[in-house]
Amino acid sequence: MPEWVYDAFSYFVVVYSTFVLTSYIVFVIMAYVEHKKHFTYHDDDYTIEELKKSPYTPGISIVAPAYNEEKTVITNVQSLLSLDYPDYEVVIVNDGSKDRTLELLIENFDLVKVPYAYVEKIKTKPFRGLYKTRSDNPAFKRLTVVDKVNGGTKADASNAGVNVVSNKFFVCTDVDCVLEKNALYRMIWPTMASTRRVIAVSATMRMSNGSVVEDGKMVMPRPPHDLIPLFQDLEYTRSFLIGKTALSHVNAMQNVSGGFGMFDREVVIKAGGYDGDSFAEDMDMVARMIRYMCDSGEDYRVVQIPETCCWTEGPPNVKVLNRQRTRWGRGLFQFFTVHRDMLFNRNYRQYGLFTLPYILIFELLAPVIEFLGYFMVLSLLVQWAINWHTIWIAFLGLYVFAQLLTVTIVSYDVWVGTSFKHRRDYLWFILASLLEPFIYHPMNVFFSLRGYVKQILGTQMVWGNMTRKGVQGAGKAAASTSVAEAKAHKEKGGEADA
Question: pTM for this structure?
Answer without folding.
Answer: 0.91
